[in-house]
Design a protein that fits this description.
The chain has nine helices and ten strands. By secondary structure, it is of the alpha/beta class. It has one domain: 3-Layer(aba) Sandwich (Rossmann fold). A six-stranded mixed β-sheet has the order 6-7-8-3-9-10, with helices on both faces. A four-stranded antiparallel β-sheet has the order 2-1-4-5, with helices on one face. The structure holds adenosine-5'-triphosphate and magnesium ion. The site of adenosine-5'-triphosphate has 12 residues, from α1. The site of adenosine-5'-triphosphate (ATP) has 12 residues, from α1.
């Protein structure tokens, strides 16, 4: 049975991509509490995006179980889709539509419409400092602006759980701060956040708990400050990351 305290529970999750004899996710067990900002950290190819993809129902695991808010994924996929929001690693926007048109499209996908959707779009555009540019086509946007629109597209429907796959990659310090500040505010209102990143310093201050994963396995898990305090040689999250994942290059 699933423990109701956990909004997300992964049990013995394994994923083999078609044609591969090495699992991308290997017997992964993970529990996330309501209201956490949980960081999935790991080198290239560690299995972060695969985990997020399974969590948001893009594809199923080869074996194992996914429980979200007390429901098992494959029995309640439709219900679960209503309470989650996904901000993918690759920008998923229509370049020739304007920012506002893109957000209207995503709003419709989540079942929002009319004045409610219009107001919500304006509210989010203002929150992320984009209201003046909302009439412009996405293809004329800078990378940081696209990231912010990508993010808004995943949170328009006020989901209970947000999955963010490297939301601040390629973004300047100003945009990054805007993004993280607003995510913290959304989290304070009760939303659980699952986030992946390669920025250890950012994860250290942003996450309530992190897991460092490699080759589809959790190597260590805990509150950043507790992990750092656990060994004398650990000075920050980056030192832990390098210590336990090694210095060899990945994806070669
Ligand atoms: N569609 C796919 N088909 C086959 N193998 C895949 C596919 N997607 C990912 N993989 C493989 O699965 C493993 C995990 O990849 P994944 O994209 O989950 O890693 P990641 O931690 O998100 O990496 P990154 O930090 O580079 O985004 C890697 O070995 C990768 O090559
Ligand atoms: Mg990835």
């Amino acid at each position: 049975m699933q423990d109701s305290k956990h909004i997300i529970e992964l049990k013995y999750l394994t994923k083999y991509y078609k044609g591969s004899s090495i699992p991308a996710i290997d017997n992964l067990n993970l529990s996330i509490d309501k209201g956490e900002i949980y960081g999935l950290l790991g080198p290239n190819g560690a299995g972060k995006t695969t985990t997020i993809s399974i969590l948001c129902g893009l594809f199923g695991p080869t074996s194992g179980n996914v429980f979200i808010d007390g429901m098992e994924y494959h029995h309640s996929a439709e219900k679960i889709k209503n309470i989650i929001g996904v901000v993918p690693q690759e920008i998923a926007l229509y370049p020739s539509l304007t920012a506002r048109e893109n957000l209207t499209f995503f709003g419709h996908m989540y079942g929002l419409k009319g004045k409610e959707l219009k107001n919500r779009i304006e509210e989010c555009l203002t929150l992320f400092g984009l209201e003046k540019n909302a009439h412009r086509r996405i293809k004329t946007f800078s990378g940081g602006m696209k990231r912010r629109i990508n993010l808004i597209a995943g949170i328009l429907h006020k989901p209970k759980i947000i999955y963010l796959d490297e939301p601040t990659v390629g973004v300047d310090v100003q945009s990054r701060n805007v993004i993280l500040e607003h995510l913290k505010n959304i989290n304070k209102e009760g939303t659980t956040i699952i986030y992946t990143s390669h920025y250890m310093e950012e994860a250290e201050s942003f996450c309530s708990r992190v897991a460092i994963i490699d080759k589809g396995n959790i190597l260590t898990e805990g509150k950043p400050q507790e992990l750092i305090a656990s060994k004398k040689e650990y000075t920050d999250l980056e030192s832990i990351f390098l210590n336990i994942t090694g210095r060899a290059l990945r994806d070669e």
